[in-house]
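Re: export button greyed out
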Amino acid sequence: MPRSNAWLRRALVFGTTFALVLAACGGSTTPSPTTTVTQGPGDTPAPTEEVDHSGGTIYMLTAAEEFDDIDPQRAYTGEDLAFFGATIMRSLTSFIYDPDAGVANTLQGDLATDTGTASPDATSWSFTLRDGLTWEDGSELTCEDVKYGVSRTFANDVIVNGPTYAVQYLDIPSNPITDENDPKSGFLSAYYGPYDGTGQADFDKAVSCDGKTITFKLNQPVADFNYTVTLGFSPVPDPTGHPDLEDTVEQYTLRPWSNGPYKIDEYTQGNGGHLILVRNDAWDPASDPIRKAYPDVWQVDFGIDAKVMDQRLIASEGDDAFAIQYGSIQPENLSTIFTDPETPNADFAGRATSDFDPFARYYWIDTNKVSNEKHRQAMAVALDRDAIRANLGGDYAGALGDGVIKPNLGDQYAETGMWTDLFGQAVPDTGDPEFAKQLIADSGEPMPALTWDYPQTAVRDQEAAILVASFGLAGITVTPNPIPPGQYYGIVFDDEAAHEFGWAGWGPDWPNASTVIGPLFTDKGGWNLSRVHDEDFVQGVQDALAELNHAAQAKMWQDLNKLAMERVYVIPTTFGLSQTFGGTKVQPLYQWAPYGSWPYAEMYVTP
Amino acid sequence: MINVEEREGSAEPSPERPFLSIENLFVSFNTEDGVVRAIDGVSLSLERGRTLAVVGESGSGKSVTAQAIMGLVRSMGGHVSGEIWLDGQELNGLQPEEVQALRGSEMAMIFQDPMSSLHPFYRVGDQIVEAILAHRKIGKAAARKETLEMLKHVGIPAAERRIDAYPHQLSGGMRQRVMIGMALINSPQLLIADEPTTALDVTVQAQILELISTLKEEFGTTVILITHDLGIVADVADDVAVMYGGRLVEVGQTSTIYEAPEMPYTLGLLSSIPRMDRELPKRLDPIRGNPPSPINLPPGCVFQPRCNYSDRVANGACLSVRPELLPTAPGHLVRCHLPAEERQQISADVRRILAGAQR
Amino acid sequence: MVGRSLRQIVWARLRRDRIAMICLIILILYYLIGIVGPVVGPALGLDPYAFDRKAISNTGGQPVLPNGGISADHPFGVEWGTGRDILSQLLWGLRISLVVATTATLLTVTVGVVIGIVAGYLGGWVDLVIGRFMDLVLAFPFILIVLALSNVLTDRITDLGVPKGNPSRIVYLIVVISAFGWPYLARIVRGQVISLREREFVEAAVAMGSSRRRILFTEILPNLWAPIIVYTTLLLPAYVGFEAALSFLGVGVIPPDTTFGAMLANSVNYFTKVPVYLFIPGSILAILVVAFNLLGDALRDALDPRVTR
Amino acid sequence: MAGYIVRRTLGMVVLLVLLTLAVFVLFSLMPADPARLTCGKACSPQIIENNRHRLELDIPPVEQYQRFVSGIFFGRTYLADTKRPLECEAPCLGYSFLRNQEVLDLITKAAPVTFWLAIGGFVTWMTVGLVFGIVAALKRGRWQDRTVMGIALVGYSLPSFFIGLVLYFFVILFLHLLPNPQWKAGMPFKDLGGFVQTMLLPWITIATLNAAFYMRLTRNQVLEVFGEDYVRTARAKGLKERTVVVKHALRAGLTPIVTAAGLDLAYLLGGAIITENIFNLPGLGSLAIGSVIASDLPLISGITLIAATLIIVANLVVDLLYAVVDPRVRVG
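Workaround output, generated via the alternate export path:
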């Protein structure tokens, strides 16, 4: 999932610091099994003590002006997926709520009774819906609704931004129209989605409903498809089944219909705006073993300056006592709230978390604009990663990264040796200007002048300064190009607008490197900021995806990760910790591993 | 400042005192550049019903003298000392309110620029009415009627319409007529006209002066006419007082000043009167240079730096000794070091040259 | 002749005004520092770009020493997170702020005066057109426009051959600030010209049949420069603050360079932690602006003969 | 007078037409391609084409402008040729495809906040400015004058964003004297107390600079008119000093300030942008910033149009007022 644009969005307005949350650190989390643990409804961990936590309002303070997307098929931002998944958008399967990353990364049935059944060759998956599933108007949530929801992903002319695994995996022919001048050629497959309707038959073949059981036919074996359905496969009321629950297409992202314990009461975007969720009376707890639904109301307050947010939560007065941070602590406040990167101060014990999140942070390098591999290596070598880490909070920012696969992906992670021997000699954390100069010399051509795109925040302005200085030592000239955070991805994905390299963050959509290597380095993946068009590499990814033996697959991901680093498709910066905190009267406050988010489904307010 | 005894002493009007008499008047302003002695010991008196012309270049202190009489100097932040007797009443010692009561009723003033002197926001009629109501308890209607009469009187055509006009809608001459009307509306004893014609076209100037003198006859007003232009004085004024550098330098009856001026400065003023019928001869140039800065006046005779004849005075007295204002003939006072005969000689020569130029 | 003597009087008055003199000296100092600082700075070991890892903590990135790391090497402390020298940043930042404010002021004044005179003196439809145009310019919520157009116009400026990055951005700032600033001065000048046009001496000159240009330059201009100078002294500090506001909104110079505005905006992050960050640039800016304003007042008093103390 | 009103009103209409044109031209050269921005990550040139069509960027600019203007008067329909046309009733300032709402709705929702912010600020700075300015002028050179001018200088010398931030951090976050500003729908009529608590600091922030400016302006104006000839005339008439000051001096002296005030309304949205962002008020300023950051062209131009129109109208009103007070203007 892309790092939330929303979190970055307000940065320009306030030009203030904004700490990034990064991927987890060397082996410090228990490896998460990607093998499916089938889990019954009962097995979810119950709250420790049996008091009733119901009631109250939990406030979420965010610097964002609005949510990127609330539409089930568009939402793709980690924190958003976690929040809406826990409140209004149930998915076929979802993750367990537990402070322990290993447990939390385990799958369980949600709308589905279990985590699904695969055909032996894993090219067909089926899920059976629970009883008593309803929409907020009380009408029944049917298999058709799930199917309709999935179908919307194919209408990529209007349903944008969301995950596209449905298009990638479902067994539907690719779009016959290839003539670039024909707008229709813009559709990702032969099925143009429910609004256009073209290719509906193909879709119906691929996704079929039999009573409460929905079956997906895939174009390739996908061992962990039941993880895939955790995002982008959530149901939307099928117009034929629910005439009064209209799919308003564009506007649907403002007011999606709920099938969870809450529903949208008010949504005002912008500074001073709110999203207010109130109880959805139609929701039947019996149909939902996962969501505790303690508070009566969730209120998200938009456009709150990050530094103000910190101060308010530190004070934790009035309603702020019931508030949680939708973002992360500013570096300058870390030492106030924590004694060291593991332990909060006494005053903040139990309400501040410093933990690993799923996100890798790196600089993508456009391999077309900087085509010379030696040049890219020189860039990697010249960078003073130590200074950058210090700027992000030093130890609080975690350790330095050596790839895009993080240790908390368990056996799929292996050291790439990027900083030890990958380029022929060890590279110090502070960078090695001389070595960089030598690499440039070896390249046989002069180093091009570079421009670094980044979503502007005060901290990243300082990062830019470090970048300029450390590259300067190696004789590489860099011009920083700050971009309003809200526009950042829109611009850097535009081949004309994007420059040589830039900032980015990425986390796996589920604990499998297939959701890292694929998206980042192949066009099909959709997050290919490095503009890698390498047939062999694509083939490698294909092979890895097709590999059903987990161990073998893991090894293949390791190698691809290493290859990518050797060619310096990206410069990994830090495998980081992320720190965030809440008011004195919200519990439980821990970082939920799957999305590096709060455990929304089991949070409550204390008197 | 006047001390108490003198004020008491001046309480009962002394019969022999003329209608207006100024006794060694001093006016000074504190500016960032130092103390400006605008008026330095002026004394003069004026009989009721006569017209005195105070002549001098700008900065000679003539306007300040007028404003001192009107009691306007204090509101401008100036310091006044000396005595001003108007109709047996000493003004300088009065409380601001008392002077205010006299202003516009006992004594009135006409200013140089009628445009800027009339308030741009109010109708001219209302501005005159305001002047009436400031001093007399009569109804608005009556006041307006009176105003209309006055406007007609000062020769404003279609007064019924003009009474509701705004200043900017009137011509310069009209405005000045309005000013005069406003000044005379409470039939004051003393009328001070400060350069009443300077801002007006030459054609209008004559009319305004004409108007002033006729009205003067009518109302029996005493007039002080302040001007820099000796030319307009002849037909209007009975007496002339020439000022220079905050002092009187020559005082006398109009005829005297014209026929037998003795102060070189007065001669200069006379010869610089523009006339249609003559070229100014090369041989005599009117006053050269600029008036002295009131902050640091030259020692000795204030006029000396510009005087053509100071070298004729023995042992350079002009440079060191301040000359006194001394009588040279009955009712004719002159402030000059030159011996009387010498002065009359020079005066005669100059007037011959002027007369010659006339032919 | 008149001009010189007036200038002498003004200068005499200014010299007698102690406050004005102090302000003048302060301002001269600011400009000297702005010009000389970055030149001699490196010789004194000042470098706004060099980051000093030793000066900042490894846990949290805060300066190791108290008060923002004030020390012998860093008299004003170091930047949180990078350890860059604040003093150096101020020196370099001051230069940029001054360049922007001063150039923008000059540009504004030139445009404003010329257009104001044209409108006021020619009058008629020219005045009408210019007047409406000024209304239009003034009607725009300029901060919004400045933000909205910053990227595209900066690129345009770069296309025009101005070096990429900060040079272009600085030019943009100057242009855009002046573009919205001139109408105010133009209005003032226009008013002055119109009132002057009515004055006797101009009428006289016209009567004497002197040419328009002559009247403009000999009669009107000399009487304009007093209000212009005063306005300028008020405009400059306003622009310093305005530039600060813009960089607070993110339309400023880009790293590694910085300005007062950027430093002020960031300093507020550390309000509770390192008040020094806020205090130093804040007071430096305040002094600058106050000095300008006081000098402006003094000048106005000195130029206005009517005013006496 | 009537002629004057007609003339100025016509002038205003012309101005408004020019305005729509200026706004359109200004933003048709905006950097980020809006079609690209709403495209998402899995983007292809074709999708951009589709979006360009949705946003009606695929028609010639002249026609775009026509639709833009006619939309304002007669409303317009987006995507008329698709299955899901979007109706936008008149006055239609456009449709924000990023927020999926009509621009006008967004603006009307935000307007009250800015309105109350502006009114409060305006009243604050005018009263403070005029009162203190007059006092300073009448007490020229005395301690009252010095104090007032001193205050004015301080207010003058710091950028408003700085004052605002410091106020917020110090008064609210540090001393906890006021609760966090939070605008609720229905303010101020609902929850007047909360309204005042929320707006107090914003008002101060937005008023400080102008208050300082108006203190000085007023002071100088008043001193100016005291030197005028007609004030001397008023004295010569023998009017009471009070009458002279109030009726003759002040009325003339303060009139130009009214005009200046009208002009400064122009700056208000600018000030509001900063203030609203600092205090997190959901007003036009915040909306504007948001629209800029997202380069939501329809929204930006909508806001600009509204803001500019308000200012132009305000200017007209002020000029007419001025004409009522100062007869000289009517002819000019």
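Residues 2-102 of chain D form one domain. The button fix ships in the next patch.
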